Structure formats: structure tokens, C-alpha cells
Amino acid sequence: MKQLRSTVIRAGLEALYFSGAHRLLRPIFAGVGVIFMLHRVRPRDDREFQPNRHLEIEPCFLRATLAHLRAHDIDLVTMDEAYRRLAEKDFARRFAAFTLDDGYRDNRDHALPVFREFDAPLAVYAVSDFAEGKGRLWWVELERVIANASGIEVEIGGQMTRIEASTAEQKQAAFERLHDWLRALPGEHDVLREVAALCARHGVDERAICGELCMSWDELKAFAADPLVTIGAHTITHSNLAKQREAVALNELKASRERIETALGRPVLHFAYPYGDRLAAGPREFALAKEVGFKTAVTTRPGMIFPESIDHVTALQRISLNGNYQDERILPVLTSGAATAMWNGFRRIDAA
């Protein structure tokens, strides 16, 4: 199903490009700026089974994106500057801000050198448990379980089910089914329990993945010393805040900020909601981020930045640089706002 969805999205992006419709919609839906969302940046991996491929792009595509923005005279700004322009209604020039979620080590090794080429700032939202080496990247754990297995046996809905995973196609289907099942479980502890059980049965050391992929506090501190880098918060555990009791959700926001400020010795003013879609971040979470005192908070809801975004600074929309669509032709479509306008039913703001 997700592969079909990706195919449909790609077809839509290409239709906008080849029809030229994005050029007609640009004056209405390009807004005053854009916040790009990334996760991982690293060289191409040719493994056939990569269900999390959408979460990573190649350095060359990041370079192409930055070059496109420079060529179109779009300012590359920090999240502080994006906020200032909204607050002061400074819309003389369009802007773009780059944000990267989770705190992966490849942000330092492969993304930062490209940003330096363009003197472009970036904000990295760190999960404090990831920096401490004790977090759980369960979506990566699930990928590795399925990569190791020819079949998965799991209890779904009270019934033991075997899911075939011999071929790349079967593995992809297995990942999609299990991922959707896990996201639908009542709480984050349920997700971690089920994935841990799968890891134990299939020989995956889930505790080692965090240290393998994410920057430690010492690495983040050195990384944050670069003048182009801003570090924001992304909760303590990367939990779905909407499924937490309010007190727990509030602590995830507040304590993650405090931990990062203590470890790095600098204020943390910006936040990103884990998962960040309607199932994970809504009006309650937006209000909590404001209560904690974050200057901005970003979602994964697709959309551009408009003058009225100042009324929703803890529910800012972003544009995903998705690993499934690394085609330079789509860049003018993405920056036109046409694709997200159509996705959102031509609403400019999605913060309900």
C-alpha cells in the first residue's frame, strides 16, 4: 500500500512539473518561505530491501536542493531568523530553513559539509535518549528483524500470524503491515515491547542501534559549536505525544529541553514533534510546546510558510525531502507550494 502511495505521489509531482501547473499556482501557494524536513543524509545504499529509504537522501540531492534555492534568490536562514521574519512581517524576500530530525551521525559527516559549501544554516532536533545511547529506533530495529528473517510470527489481534519475508517484495509488505500495526498500538511502551520481542527472536541487538547511528552528547556538543548549527529538542524518548497523558507529554517536552541545555550549555528554543502527523501532534501538543516556551515547533504536516503562520508557530508545516523522490525536476514543484496545496485541499494552514 505504501509503495502504491509513493507511486501516486511521484505521478502527481511529475504531472505538476510537466504540465507547468506549479508555475501558475506559485504566486498563490508559494507563501513567504519553506521549512524543509530531513532525517538522514548519506551516500546511496544499493540494498534491495530498504523500507526506511524515505527517511534519507543522498548528499548530491541535498546539494542540488541548496543550489536550486540559491539560483532562485531564496534566503537560507536559521529557525530564529524564520521566526523573526514572521513576527516582524518581514516578507521582502522568500526564505528556506533546513531541519533534520533525531540527531543522526551522518548529519555531521555527510550533511554538514554540503551546508558549509553554501554557507547554509541547519537545525538538528535531538532526542535526548538517543544522545545518551539508550534510545530505541524501533523502525530501524524492525527493518533489521525483517532483513534477517524468511518469515515473521507475531500475535496480531489475539491471533498468531505468520508473515512471509523470503523475497524483497515480501519483506517490504511485511514491514508495511507490521509498521502500521505497531503505530496503531495503544501506547509507545506497547510498540517497544513488541519490537523488542521480535529482536530477541531474530537475533537483533536493538540496544546497539542507537549508539551506532546517533551522535552522543560529546559529538553533539562539538557539532553544535559550528556557527551554522542550531540544536533543537525532539523529546526524551521519541514517543508519540498524542498517546501520552498530558503530564507525561509535558515532561517529554520540558525535560528534553533541559537535558540538551545542560549537556550543550546553550539555550534550546526550537522543537520538533516525533512522527509529527495528525496522529501524533494536535492542538493539545501545540499548546504544551507553547507552555514550555519553545519559540517554534515543527510538525510533519506538509505545507509552506505563510504570513498567518505566525499565529501557529508551534504547529509549523514542513516540506519533506523524501528519499523516494530524489529528482531535481521536482524541486521547483516543491518550492512552488503546488503539491502541498493540492494535498491540503488548497488550505494554506493545517493546524487543527
What's the helix and strand layout?
Blueprint: H1 2-19, H2 21-29, E1 33-38, E2 40-41, E3 56-57, H3 59-71, E4 75-76, H4 79-87, E5 95-102, H5 105-117, E6 122-126, H6 128-131, H7 138-148, E7 151-156, E8 159-164, H8 168-183, H9 188-202, H10 206-213, H11 217-224, E9 229-233, H12 246-264, E10 270-272, H13 283-292, E11 296-302, E12 316-320, H14 331-336, H15 338-343
Parallel strand pairs: 1-5, 1-12, 2-3, 4-5, 5-6, 6-9, 10-11, 11-12
Antiparallel strand pairs: 7-8
Helix pairs in contact: 3-5, 7-8, 7-9, 12-13
How would you portray this structure in words?
The protein has 352 residues and is of the alpha/beta class. The chain has two domains: 2-133 and 215-343, Alpha-Beta Barrel (TIM Barrel); 138-208, no CATH class. The chain is 47% helix and 16% strand. It contains 15 helices and twelve strands. Strands 1, 4, 5, 6, 9, 10, 11 and 12 form an eight-stranded parallel sheet that branches. Helix 4 (79-87) links the parallel strand 4 and strand 5 (95-102). The model has no long low-confidence stretch (mean pLDDT 94).
